[in-house]
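Archive entry: two folds, one per protein. Generate the first.
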Amino acid sequence: MKYVSYQEYIEHGGEVYRVQAKPSGIHTKPFKTFLDELAWMVSRHSRVFLYRFDLRFADDKSATKDSFLMSIFFRRLRRQLERHYKTKDVGYSWAREIEKAKQQHYHCVLMMDGNRIHHPRALSIKIKKIWLEISGGSPYWSRWHFFHRLDFKKQHKAIYHSSYLFKVRGKGYKPKQARDYGHSRLC
């Protein structure tokens, strides 16, 4: 069972983070996994790039009954980013959602060495192309953050923004073989 917090702040690793827990709550275990992945990235790179984006399917018939499509998507994306930006350090988290009167969609966050990427234009094009090829759908929202490892204000802003992925609302409406969350395995 997933622990849900309705508090505005969550403590992890000696730090306190403001989160988007209202009104439905936030799943703390996957959120803390995301924090661990981000901490690993911050420990390795002086500047971190965090890219938050959403993916939707072309229609309800395209929705999936498992998480295999996300595995394919991030495997292809990671391979292209490693080649393009000459880095092996590509981290990510994703959340599967479906709500009443809405089709299945994914919220994603990507983390990279901020010294390798200067603007997300090429990244956005790669995401759009890969998602279209494997799902027929498109990305429909994005936002990015750059922060230095010692700029805690910007880092906490990026974490607050990313905490939206881990909200309770929209989760759990899935077949048994599907997952609500997925993460890279940086650490």
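Generate the second and append.
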Amino acid sequence: MLAVTDLKKSFVSPDGERVDIVNVPGFSLGAGEQLALRGESGSGKTTFLNLIAGILAADSGQVAIDGQEMTALSESKRDRMRADKLGYIFQTFNLLQGFTVIENVVLGMSFGPGGADRDHARRTLQRVGLGHRLDHFPHQLSTGQQQRVAVARALANRPRLVLADEPTGNLDRKHAREALALIREVSKEVGSALLLVSHDEEVLQQFDLRRDFADINKVAVVARASSGPAT
């Protein structure tokens, strides 16, 4: 499902020095697998996810998703492939504040292969327990409910791969457990592979498959610690 080969990314620091952030010789994830990557703040794990998703362009290397190479595409084609293949759950939710709950999901679906499907969006929101909040705006929801909208939006198009970047980081323990269980359950239901990154041991321990990002990313610890853009 996901194959990463010789993936590298660096940034230029304010003093003009080029700092290596990601150097992953090899990484893979099978169809339907759910894996958690352990990584501290500043380790480059968010950059790694953004490279996989095509949000950032790699300096070199390859990312193949479901047999299609992301890194060889132009920005517009990466956008299309992301809409076709990926679901992304952000720590900060990234909901559109001027749109209702169902509109946020429908808009996310409109870029995917099946297009906007309001009925399916409604069913997905019902699945995550928000069938009674369809016409509410994000600011009218609790933090936990906003995360559920983000989960519904990411999974509504039945993506082949779901990326989750510290998806419980803004939630209390109770809602974090509920959100994590929901992400895993719905990913399994729609047949998506799941790659989650976190520094929270309670989150990490819920996964049978776990790896340390430091074992995958071959950038020196001192370089990671000094790099501003890495998260």
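Annotation attached to the second fold: The first strand starts at residue 2 and ends at 12. Residues 46 and 91 are 10 Å apart (CA to CA).
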